[in-house]
Amino acid sequence: QVHIVESGGGLVQPGGSLRVSCTASGNIAKIQDMGWYRQAPGEERELVARFRVGGSVYVGDSVKGRFTVSLDNDKNTIFLQMKLLKPEDTAVYYCNVALFSLESPGILAEYWGQGTQVTVSS
Known about the structure:
Elements: E1 2-7, E2 10-12, E3 18-26, E4 28-39, E5 46-52, E6 57-59, E7 67-72, E8 77-82, E9 91-101, E10 108-112, E11 116-120
Parallel strand pairs: 2-11
Antiparallel strand pairs: 1-3, 3-8, 4-5, 4-9, 5-6, 7-8, 9-10, 9-11
């Protein structure tokens, strides 16, 4: 079984900073990608940033220059550092992990976290 746990959301004023983290644990053989998506009320879920283990990093245009994604390989943890937050960054932030599990080492599967609320408001 695989577990995806997010933490670090909350309420912050415009212009403020916040860091969210996501840890994957359980019967993991290999992680391929870890990333963050967000979904605001009435909107589609959008990709914010994604980190391919040992490879490329993607950061969405709407957050480029303000958000930074980093990865701790040893702890299977991805961090999203958010700065200069705007009200339009308000959303539920979801962690997404693509990995090979020990039960099915030949199958790439995606797992989602439960989501963490980020609210930017004065």
